[in-house]
Design a protein that fits this description.
The chain has 452 residues and is mainly alpha-helical. It has 18 helices and 10 strands.
Length: 452
């Protein structure tokens, strides 16, 4: 038995030794063979040209110094918050400014700002809307303003803008146009949205005749006691120009121009573009793609602008201009009264009042009319009382309707409505005269003068 085991072990040893020899022999290479023929070149792209290396093309933009930095800046921009985009989704009239797809729709279709009569209803309709409801979605993003991104996959795509065309003002039914010429009209992209909304007539839905406010200032445009046909407007808490005042003020167009001080523009209108200040070199959390100009004077103090007398928050040119306009806004609001009741609404809440601090009494540009949802505390916030809402909703409770009925009724003349519009424009411009000092002062001075 032992002999058998020894023979088996001896045989296995020979096998292992032989394997080692064989393995060692396999590591040696033989002589190299002849080189094979080159393969056939691939076909060109659909445009007939060779493509470019993908990684090299992408990194031109997608680097920490470019797109990645812009993305971080944009996180601080109000455009990026997306709240309005979700709130207004599905609304054709709101989509041109609040939805990315809606904005691109009105630009590519050249949606008109004119009002046309609907023969079936007998009412006028504003053409500046998104008729395709599938386009009434999407928060503002890179492709909203840069709609050529990834068309050639080169750096040339990024500077291209969705539109720089002159803007026919929807507030004026297309009869007035804004065209900011500086820097190849780039500011027109901003003004496409940052323009006032129209005020429409209660009688037929057509755009309000703003010129009539100037030519017939004493005419009563609303009075609950007069025939309905004479009430050109039917005021509500939100009656006005909405929020896009800055484009109109900057361009020196859109205000109700009562006679008096001449309507001229500051140097900014012709010599500067929106991005010069709102997209200046970053300073803290302002500048770049935050679009925030507050506290950042990098765009002001460039060569040819304020480089000689450098501006900062304490400069008299900046500080005194704003203080002067604030005083005029206060004075105009004080004149917009019926008896002891102010027409303009106050809002002491710094969170909900986007224009908090721009006036002493923190007006927000809304009208001081009772509304149980939007203005339920008007009486407390506005000494003297609140005006009756001429259009109580069927959703109001009986108690809310009783409160409304007991309030004083509002009457408005053309002069008062025109002054309200100018107050809203100059307040909601949000710069206290910095955008266009000359035009702002003329609107306020002449509005104050036209009121008794």
């Amino acid at each position: 038995m032992k002999r058998t085991i020894y023979l088996m072990v001896f045989a296995m040893g020979l096998l292992i030794a032989g394997s080692s020899v064989m393995l060692t022999g396999c590591t040696k290479e033989g002589p190299q063979g002849l080189a094979g023929k080159d393969g056939t070149n691939g076909t060109n792209g659909s445009n007939g040209k060779d493509g470019k290396d993908g990684t090299a093309g992408c990194i031109t933009c997608h680097s920490p110094a470019s797109i990645e930095a812009i993305a971080v800046q944009y996180e601080h921009a109000k455009h990026a918050f997306g709240l309005a985009a979700f709130d207004e989704a599905g609304r054709g009239d709101c989509a041109p400014c609040h939805e990315s797809e809606g904005f691109k729709f009105v630009v590519t279709t050249s949606a008109p700002s004119t009002f046309t009569l609907n023969a079936a209803t007998g009412k006028y309709v504003n053409g500046y809307t998104v008729s395709d409801l599938s386009k009434t979605i999407g928060d503002i993003n890179c492709s909203t303003c840069h709609n050529s991104i990834h068309s050639t996959y080169t750096a040339a795509d990024l500077p291209k803008l969705t539109t720089v065309k002159a803007v026919a003002m929807t507030m004026w039914g297309g009869t007035k146009t804004i065209d900011l010429a500086a820097d190849e009209h780039i500011g027109n992209l901003c003004v496409t949205c940052h323009q006032p909304r129209p005020i429409t007539k209660a009688t037929d839905g057509n755009v309000l005749d703003y010129a009539a406010l100037v030519t017939s200032p004493a005419t009563v445009i609303y009075d609950a006691a007069q025939a309905a046909a004479l009430n050109i407007v039917k005021p509500s808490y939100r009656t006005g120009i909405h929020y896009g005042a800055s484009g109109a003020i900057y361009a020196g167009k859109g205000g109700v121009e009562f006679p008096g001080a001449a309507y001229t523009n500051s140097v900014h209108t012709a010599a500067a573009a929106c991005q010069n200040c709102h997209m200046a070199a970053m300073n803290g959390s302002a500048g770049g793609h935050t679009f925030i100009a507050k506290g950042n004077f990098a765009g002001c103090n460039v060569a040819g602008c304020h480089s000689t007398a450098v501006l900062d928050a304490n400069s008299s040119k900046f500080k005194d201009t704003r203080a002067n306009v604030m005083t005029k806004l206060n004075n105009l609001a004080a004149k917009l009264k019926i008896g002891a009741v102010e027409i303009m609404s106050r809002n002491p809440d710094a969170t909900s009042n986007l224009w908090f601090g721009l006036t002493t009494n923190n007006y927000d540009g809304y009208l001081n009319l009772y509304d149980p949802y939007s203005n339920p505390t008007g009486i407390a916030n506005n000494p003297g009382g609140t005006f009756q809402n001429p259009s109580p909703s069927s959703s109001w409770t009986q108690a809310q309707k009783d409160i409304n009925t007991a309030l004083p009724k509002l009457t408005l003349t053309n002069a008062q409505l025109g002054a309200i519009i100018n107050f809203q424009l100059c307040l909601r411009d949000n710069s206290l005269g910095i955008h266009n000092t000359s035009y702002t002062n003329a609107l306020l001075d002449n509005s104050i003068a036209i009121l008794p």
